[in-house]
Predict the structure.
Amino acid sequence: MAAQPRSRRETWRLLFLISPSLFWLVVFFLIPLIVVLAISFGQRGTYGGVRWDLTLENYARFFDPLYLRIFGRTLVIALTTTVICLLMGYPLAYFIATRPPRWRNTLLVLLMIPFWTNFLIRTYAWLLLLRDQGFVNAFWTGPLHAVFAQLALAVPLGIWEPFLQATSAPLTLFGTDGAIIIGLVYGWLPDMVLPCYAAVDRLDYSLVEAAQDLYANRLRSFLRVILPLTLSGIVAGSILVFIPSLGAYVTPDLLGGAKSIMIGNVIYSQFMSARDYPFGSAISFVLMAVMLVGTLIYFRLGRE
Amino acid sequence: MAKYAVELKGVSKHFGPVVAVDTVSLSIGDGEFFSLLGPSGCGKTTTLRLIAGFELPTEGDVYIDGQLQGETPPYRRPVNTVFQNYALFPHMTVFQNVAFGLEMQKVSKEEIRQRVLAALEMVQLPGMENRKPAQLSGGQQQRVALARALVNHPKVLLLDEPLGALDLKLRKAMQLELKALQHRVGITFIYVTHDQEEALTMSERIAVMDRGQVLQVGTPEEIYEQPADRFVADFIGETNFLEGQVQERQAGEAEVVVDGVLTLYVPTPPLPPPTLGRMKGGAETRQGVTVAIRPEKISLHPQPPDQRAVPGVVQEVVYTGTDTRYLVQLTDRTIVTVRRQNVDLGTAVSFPMGAKVYLHWQPESARLLIE
């Protein structure tokens, strides 16, 4: 089929079919992208706006230690989020895919239900949970502290002292990298589970039986057969989690407070507060380049 | 060495309310080519999976080489399986596929190399080591699956309809090849199939299964010539069934009247009746019975050769190459199929449609089935 030369008529028909999406992508994606690229080589006007004196200064500025550190932290947060999502999501996907068919859809719907609520509201809910006077700390300094106090009375040994000490003051959760990671993992876990589920579901289970028949125990059949044959799902899921985590803005903004910021927040502030469009555009492009290179490397790994 | 390669003692397998295998007991000898034969859903594959260890019996015990298996996982059983869809690892080369079992058993690299190449040689696939399964034809994949199992020198080889996906000609060739291979390696083969011709061609003994039960175990000849019950007679080959009532029982023979018009004389089965199968009773007078006669055991005559010949009228003549099938209507209106080999086409008497004929068979060719 593909080898045959397509008739001119068929080419036009295909063009007609993809024209809506082509139009959309060109007008609302490609052209703005070119505009942003152009701006990234401009200079900030005195009152904001762009002066068209072409320069590479914006890209050079990115390598300032201040921004590099934020970018490095962003990478670590995004990678940690991806790894945690994978470690939690893959077993969950495997569990769901190996249930009887009538259970699978129910479990997938249960997985999706939280995501019918607006993302901002869900992230805000985490804020209520994690802040110093939040629900987690209310439990920590309330009932949990009381339990240790009772235990100290009932069993008067010195061993309770560290626990009493620890639960006497609220934990600092809000405003840490940990809080951001919790928020990101929560937000992107389904994006890991779904491709992994699809991959495990596609796996021909008789191959696993064949491995076991050929003296491979459970661990070895997993490592030698199940894992390599579901790698495509792992790669897809990881990319789907890593990319939005790398560009995250809402989650670090709400849960990271003023102390913990990611590169997305820097871009936001360049556009909205500093009014330095050229620098904001340059950071955006560096971020896109990193995503692109990372994705390509990862895809190649997945294929081998 | 144990007396039996595989023994099942009262093995049952229930899936919820479904009884897939119902108290099956089998003893399969060392080096035997044994077939489990039955229609789909009869429990033959489940029986195989119980031996492989993919399923654990609800009741009963499985012994392999004299060892009680209990809950031994598949990877610790001295058996290997050739799967119905071959189940070759798509991400590995042919070499890696065949080497997999040896690698898991921690055989040295050099020995793995030698044994894998020898196994590929044995299934006539040399030089294919570096191909991926997707680059092979169905027949070649089948050979790789066979090599992958045999390279481990298992005690027992389990084959789950391994030829099902091949076309007829290749299947016939592979049947003979498999049989020769089994002879050469001397490994016990347990072969699952729904193809009765395949089972007859290849097996030393066959177990015929239906609805989870083993109805009869025997050599191909026993199964064909002395079917234990109507199901076996019907499933293996082609059979004419005539239903009637025992009129009179004489020494070793019953006089059966079909529909009140036709009288047949049939040898009664040895008493007590076979324990296997679903046959009951011993052909008492007035008992309802079925008389089974194979189409090729009936001869056609223009004149009655003796008093027991049965008259009929040819309804249909179907030429099928090696033989011709006649559909003959008897006086009680039942239709009987008769097969005549097409030898001496020139000289043999032909029977056109509408011709009056007499059917004749040797007394022992008819079998009395009592349900």
Q: What stands out?
A: The CA atoms of residues 289 and 370 of chain B lie 5 Å apart. Chain B touches chain A at residues 52, 54, 73-76, 79-81, 83-85, 87-91, 100-101, 104-105, 148-149, 152 (CB under 8 Å). The helical segments of chain B are 44-52, 94-104, 109-122, 138-150, 168-185, 196-202, 220-225, 230-235. Residues 271-278 of chain B have pLDDT under 50 and may be disordered.
